[in-house]
Amino acid sequence: MCADGKEEKKRPVLEIRDLSVSFRMYGHGLQQRELQVISGLHLTVYPGEIVAIAGSSGSGKSLLSAAILGILPDNARIDGHLHYKGQELTPKLQSRLRGTEIALVPQSVAYLDPLMKVGAQAERHYRPRLREKSRALFKRLDLPEQTPRLYPFQLSGGMARRVLVSTALITDAELIVADEPTPGLHLEAAKRVLSHFREIADAGAGVLLITHDLSLALETVDRIVVFYAGTAVEEAGAGDFSKEESLRHPYTKALYRAMPEHGFLTVSGSQPFVTELPRGCFYGPRCAYFSEECKGTIPYRGFQ
């Protein structure tokens, strides 16, 4: 508590300010150019909450997870600020925290080592405490008893997905970045996975959940950051998605109308490629409310 009796605001476990990610690419001959795929991104995750990132494919969601973990390819360039618990996330610090205080649930099941049994990968070198914890996690994730003795090629897609989830949940990480952890899972299994993330957040960790399934995420998360063409157009509380009138950006409203329970309504056009981004609001060419004002600097619509 502060001296005036008010509760002191928690420090973010993850704070991102004005983040840009670009890639050095070759064009004609030996000519190089920079392709900026994430621009001007602001985002925070506090201990005890789940923040979801939603948006269409190709909007930069998975690249953000790689930037946080420090696993972007060598031709990537990062500008802006990434902080973990107040510390600048330098490459050295990312390497030290990765897999311990910061855990990743990767999108691709190819992250599992095909030459190592599942139990060895989940139990992290057979430390007794982790072996017991992983067995309990496997059971809670409805994985068969023989799963630790199997190789990845012997798993179904849904089983492999749940094994990946277990490798992150087994750690004592204070920040979990979950990149599409539920595709391939039936509804009840997907809900169970998200409930585990909820339990971890309620115990004090921060969770950044990247997802296409907005309807499912809304049952669990605290806030939603909406991505479009490599930037955040709006950040809203989960409760704001209870009605369209509570949402502010036209793209967020379009996502709301595209949800199954709201009619699967679509908007004409497509997300622009990084070399064809318009001035001002990137959603402008598809927006029914587009005006000259939208060609200028667009204020970030953060959660208040």
Protein described:
This protein is α/β, with parallel strands linked by helices and 304 residues long. Helix content is 25%, strand content 23%. The chain has eight helices and ten strands. The strands form two sheets. A six-stranded mixed β-sheet has the order 6-7-8-3-9-10, with helices on both faces. A hairpin with a 2-residue loop joins strand 9 and strand 10. The relative contact order is 0.14.
Features:
25% helix; disordered N terminus; alpha/beta; six-stranded mixed β-sheet; 304 residues; four-stranded antiparallel β-sheet; single chain
Describe what is shown at a glance:
The protein has 304 residues and is an alpha/beta fold.
